[in-house]
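This section describes the prediction task in plain terms. A model, or a person checking by hand, is given the sequence of a single protein chain and must write out its three-dimensional structure as a string of tokens. No templates, partner chains or ligands are provided. The sample shown here is typical of the held-out split.
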Amino acid sequence: QVQLVESGGGLVQAGGSLSLSCAASGRTFSWYRMAWFRQVPGQEREFVAGILWSSRATSYADSSKGRSTISRDNAKTTLYLQMNSLNPDDTAVYFCAAARRLNSYGYTDARTYDYWGQGTQVTVSL
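The expected answer:
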């Protein structure tokens, strides 16, 4: 059974940093890629960053490029997101997600991903 559990969210002042983690269990070695998304109430989930599970090649949304770093551990059991220079626009629930294979939606589309965590709240204050 696949399970994704996020941690590390919280309240931080603008300009600060947070590190999110996502503990993965199940057949993680066979996954195609993982990603972080975020969601604000009333809006769709937004791609933040992604990583190819085997090669560790990374990709970022324009909003997070240069401020965030996505990575995974060698055992392929934990996904990380280091976020720096946070601003109030980064306030959202952050989700990690895993995709078993490539599909036609593309890696920034939430429909590509088969498994989701429960989310962790990130709040950035002025």
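For orientation: Residues 76 and 89 are 30 Å apart (CA to CA).
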